[in-house]
Amino acid sequence: MSAFNNSEVQLFLLIGIPGLEHAHIWISIPICLMYLVAITGNSTILFIIKTEPSLHEPMYYLLALLAISDLGLSFSSLPTMLRIFLFNSMGISPNACFAQEFFIHGFTVMESSVLLVMSLDRFLAIHNPLRYSSLLTSSRVAKMGLILAIRSILLVLPFPFTLRRLKYCQKNLLSHSYCLHQDTMKLACSDNKINVIYGFFVALCTMLDLALIFLSYMLILKTVLSIASLAERLRALNTCVSHICAVLIFYVPIITLAAMHRFAKHKSPLVVILVADIFLLLPPLMNPIVYCVKTRQIREKVLGNLLNICRR
């Protein structure tokens, strides 16, 4: 018997793309490029916000928090994804798996929370523009960031401990290229009712964030429709486009993946793996691109820095 919780399982096996194992080395090329773009894009946004005094405003601090969440998601999944697709190494120890799922779920909750606060920021900017700067100060954003980080840690902290108390007897094949709580607990041969209940509670907290974001946009829409000028309405709505894209990019894959895990009885493994990879790869990849394209201040600073580098 193994020393790990009196269990016979000493390694969990992650999975690449079923049926395409022979092509993993080629699949690793676009995956590595996506990670490179995601890490470079989010690091660039953080660097520009830190070094440019004109961007030291609440809205950009929230964008920095979003970039930190995206970097956390990228670095959390990077080790196992590269091991699988570059070196065909599928094994991961239980403790390493539990640690990975803690960071993945933690940064997922943090990103969800940041998107909620950003929706509040957009509501205040549109509903009460004259008091916006006094209501949402830099110090308040800093406190919000600290609270969001603590909330994320506290919500997912029980995950590794509740998984560790379970027994894993024979099944050890996971259904993703990285560890997730809902995936790992299904391998247990002991009672996982606590994991199911608490996992559902954390999912509800994330869905509550989405519901409050939806409520914020209902209030924003109500405010915008009360504006007499059509041009002013469009300008107000245009300030929300980047955030709406970020919300869709983040929540559509995560809701799809959760629904497939909970309700799909005859789901295709290939579809599950693709959706799961999109869930982790797409937000860190697309958020910097969306905000660089739609936010003039960020776009100008990025292009300015690129021109300075080219001149050298």
UniProtKB/TrEMBL annotation:
One annotated GO molecular function: G protein-coupled receptor activity
Domain of life: Eukaryota
TM stretches of this protein: 23-48, 60-82, 102-120, 141-161, 196-220, 241-264, 270-293
SUPFAM superfamilies: Family A G protein-coupled receptor-like
Keywords tagged on the record: Cell membrane, G-protein coupled receptor, Membrane, Olfaction, Receptor, Sensory transduction, Transducer, Transmembrane, Transmembrane helix
Location, primary (coarse class): membrane
A Pfam family of this chain: 7tm_4
GO biological process, one term: cellular response to lipid
CDD domains according to UniProt: 7tmA_OR51-like
Signal peptide: none
Domain G-protein coupled receptors family 1 profile, chain residue ranges per copy: 41-291
Membrane topology summary: Multi-pass membrane protein
PROSITE patterns registered for this protein in UniProt: G_PROTEIN_RECEP_F1_1, G_PROTEIN_RECEP_F1_2
Subcellular location: Cell membrane; Membrane
Any one of the GO CC terms: plasma membrane
Function: Putative odorant or sperm cell receptor.
PANTHER family the UniProt entry points to: OLFACTORY RECEPTOR 51A7 (PTHR26450:SF411), OLFACTORY RECEPTOR 56B1-RELATED (PTHR26450)
Family (UniProt): Belongs to the G-protein coupled receptor 1 family.
Descriptive protein name: Olfactory receptor
